[in-house]
Design brief:
Number of helices: 2
Radius of gyration: 24 Å
Number of domains: 2
Distance between the termini: 71 Å
Length: 440
Amino acid sequence: MSDDADPFLLPAGDVDTTFDVDLTSETVLLEGEDLTALETYDLETHQYIFDADRLRSSGVDFEEGSVLWISGLALRRVNSVEERGSTLVVDTEFASLNEAISDGTVGWDADLGFTSSYTSEQFDRVAAEDSVLGSSNSLGVSPASSTVALADVAVTNRAGEVMGRPTFQRVQNGDREVLQLEFTQGTTDYVFGLTPMGDEVRLKAEMTSPSGSEANLRFTGIGTAKAVRATGQVEYADSELTAMDVEANQLEGEIEIDIAAAGSGVEEETEIPLPGGFMFRHIFMVGAIPITVTTSIELKARINVVSNASATATSRFSFGGDTGFVYDGTEVVPEAAIGTLKIDPESADSGAYFGQPVHAGFGIIFPRVSISVFDQLLIPYVQVGMALNTSLSWGPVCKRSYIQLIVQAGYDLTILGVNLAAHETTLAEETTEGDQEGCE
């Protein structure tokens, strides 16, 4: 067993936590020295293999139907226990926190800074599973088949189609380190750069097709986002969730989006969530519970700019506020205090031969924050989406630009023991029409 800690595990002193709970009678909690009995595990099948003698010497005993809680790693219900030679093979199924906790309070308050040491897998390897502790953990135990080489990582769109095989690199820009991802699809180059700066991160996202090729376009997004403060409190009584307040606060930033497409001669619609290796991942322990917060990026583009046509637009976006969800024992209520939601459009224009429609749209979702308990998403996402569109239509002739800034979130309380979920809740929205010409 290795003593290496997970590279993304926040020091205990950086997080204020509360873990004051009573466990149910069927729960077996493995922690401290008892964890040395765990030899390996599989993230896909949730099978756990223990050294049988070490378990016995620790006085640990669980059976079919027990709730197995491995501190910092897993919460599962035991389906079967089989002794194979010197090992004990345990197959499991999902268990929620209310099956393990009868009464008590779990809480956290963490300021999550941006440093290069907290990028997922530190660009050296990428977790094949988006699991809570990735390919290594504070136990020093590696899961089976947990990592893949960067060469095997593909950027895919929402339809699952491979967009390209990215390259990851660290680029020095003055005294700052830029974490950069690049890939190419056809004639289009995608470049994403993140510059960690402690309490904020600088983003540059660029989608270009160079002059001289069939297409000639440039979509650019440049700006900054503040580090998120993650807070939460969960309360149980008689193995029931009685209250919850989970928040992603200090969601602040400024982004400028610019569109320039001239004679691109292409029609394309793309949504690209970047691969797991290009995000910030913070993990912290609340008692025996691992909490994971990730901050990532998505890109959206829609292009319909025929040959001999053009489209340009620019807009700045500003946002700031607190977001989250509250559960009072019966229902979930979104909680948002968005103090800043501002769109500042500049000029937009489009042109084409008679009868040829034009549309160019570019959007960035950043930051997109998710919060997981164990390996289950509690807040699948809280995200800020910015979109800039410019178009030309005929009959009658209408040139217009449309700009949107929207804050959305989702929740899933299954891991807490309540069957309530919402995949898309709009917390705040601002839209505006930019330049218009000839539109009725």
